[in-house]
Design goal:
By secondary structure, this protein is an alpha+beta fold. It has a domain of about 160 residues. It contains five helices and 23 strands. The protein has a 21-stranded mixed sheet that branches. A two-stranded antiparallel ribbon has the order 22-23. A hairpin with a 2-residue loop joins strand 22 and strand 23.
């Protein structure tokens, strides 16, 4: 066999192999890859339904897929393209693009479901993963209006830690609202990181670097009773008013707050309890001029215990304490969700000593210099205390028109004050004491006063004028 004939035979065999390989790939390899992709995804806790699967050297590419987490259908979505790096047939890395995730249910229910899912599939959380063009929509029930929409997201995972960031995070869905309706709250950039034991979330509110985000949330979900700590670093209220699309009736005020929450075991089936501490620098509550002496400084603080009901629709506040200088109020309140807005109600009471109130009133009306002495006298004369009741009712979408009711009780009286043996209280009540008895009589042996007569001559008589003839 000459070389030319040998070459023809080799080319013919090669053609047969190529054709056979194509037939194998068409009828066997591709379906095998399809089945393998579905099988491996299920082993890692994902029910994958791909439309197209292609095989590469050491990888499999899945396109136009829908998915849901195994045993947790509340989290589902679509993936435009999924590349899986393989070592033989085992996944060793994942790259995704065009991921649209939808989460349905309450935060505790989803948290519990994800925690249980992660326990069943720990290897999935250890796979190196990269994702881009991620959108997450979270709603309370199927077809309900979203609570939160994250867009422009990216995910990276290496080792035990996962990082997530989103360019935009919006409360509600603006595109479905009527023209002229309030703009949906835009929280700006969002960053998050989590491990098997805890998670941290940072909300940017417009900052470019989420490392400087004013709002941080830390969740320790591996504890027997999981906890969440929310921290608001000092931030101008104007930065929060813009994202939430509300007008605040105050300016040049800096807010800071910390919230500590204790979750029920299992993250569901019980109330959430916790505490709240906050401060508003540059703000003091409205008050009458007479109590300027009580309300001093430029900071108002608020602290309370809170309880969130099982439906996560209402938070009741107890042991509420509002302090601005020596002006202090206490009481109860509630924050609750209505159809398209939130609402808050506070019922506060306090007592002001009448002695201090009288002095403060005199000081405020007469000034510090002139009112000093009068204020001291007023403090000595007045007794009792005045009860103050403040009621606040406000909607989150109309804070400028919050309803504030103020009631001032009557409880001040005059206390006895003796000056030179006299009860000043009786004097002020209009009752003079009787003149003291036993005083010596006036002396009577004095000589009589001389009499002085002043003689005045009468005026001369004038003749009557004669009439002309």
């Amino acid at each position: 066999m000459n070389k030319r004939r040998l070459l023809l035979v080799v080319l013919a065999l090669l053609g047969v192999l190529i054709a056979g390989g194509g037939v194998f790939a068409l009828f066997f390899a591709k379906p095998m890859a399809f089945d393998l992709a579905v099988k491996r995804a299920r082993e890692h806790g994902v029910e994958l339904r791909p439309k197209d699967v292609s095989i590469g050297f050491g990888s499999v590419t899945v396109r136009e897929s829908s998915f849901e987490l195994t045993g947790l259908g509340a989290i589902h979505g679509t993936i435009r393209e999924l590349d899986v790096s393989l070592r033989w047939t085992r996944p060793v890395g994942i790259r995704l693009s065009g991921v649209d995730v939808e989460a349905v249910g309450s935060a505790p229910a989803l948290g519990l479901g994800v925690t249980e899912w992660a326990k069943r599939y720990p290897e999935t959380l250890r796979l190196p993963t990269e994702a881009r063009e991620v959108t997450l929509t979270w709603r309370k029930a199927a077809k309900a209006e979203p609570w939160l929409t994250l867009s422009g997201g990216s995910v990276s995972r290496a080792g035990a830690e996962t990082h997530f960031s989103a360019e935009k995070s919006v409360l509600g869905v603006c595109s479905e609202r009527d023209e002229g309706a309030p703009v949906c709250p835009d929280l700006g950039k969002l960053g998050a990181a989590w491990t098997a034991d805890e998670a941290e979330v940072a909300i940017g509110f417009g900052v470019e670097d989420v490392g400087r985000a004013p709002v941080r949330l830390k969740i320790q979900h591996a504890l027997p009773e999981p906890t969440a700590d929310i921290t608001l670093t000092p931030v101008a209220l104007e930065r929060l008013a813009g994202p939430f699309g509300v007008k605040l009736p105050v300016k040049n005020v800096t807010a800071s707050a910390t919230v500590h929450l204790v979750m029920p075991k299992g993250l569901e089936g019980g109330a959430i309890t916790g505490t709240l501490d906050s401060a508003l620098k540059g703000y003091i509550p409205p008050h009458p001029r007479e109590i300027d002496g009580f309300v001093f400084g430029d900071t108002t603080t608020l602290s309370a215990k809170l309880r969130v009901d099982e439906a996560r629709e209402r938070a009741d506040l107890s042991e509420v304490k509002v302090t601005a200088g020596a002006f202090k109020l206490g009481g109860t309140g509630s924050v609750f969700r209505e159809d398209d807005h939130g609402a808050v109600r506070l019922d506060l009471t306090g007592n002001l000593p009448c002695s201090a109130l009288a002095g403060a009133a005199v000081d405020s009306h007469l000034g510090k210099a002139l009112g000093g002495l009068a204020g001291q006298l007023a403090r000595q004369l007045v007794k009792g205390s005045v009860g103050i009741t403040v009621g606040i009712s406000a909607r989150s979408d109309d804070l400028e028109n919050a309803k504030v009711t103020k009631k001032v009780g009557i409880g001040c009286g005059l206390k006895p004050l003796e000056i030179g043996g006299f009860d000043v209280g009786q004097i002020l009540e209009g009752k003079l004491p009787p003149m003291p008895s036993g005083l010596p009589p006036m002396p009577s042996g004095l000589p009589p006063l001389p009499k002085i007569d002043f003689k005045v001559d009468p005026p001369p008589k004038s003749e009557a004028p004669k009439e002309p003839k």
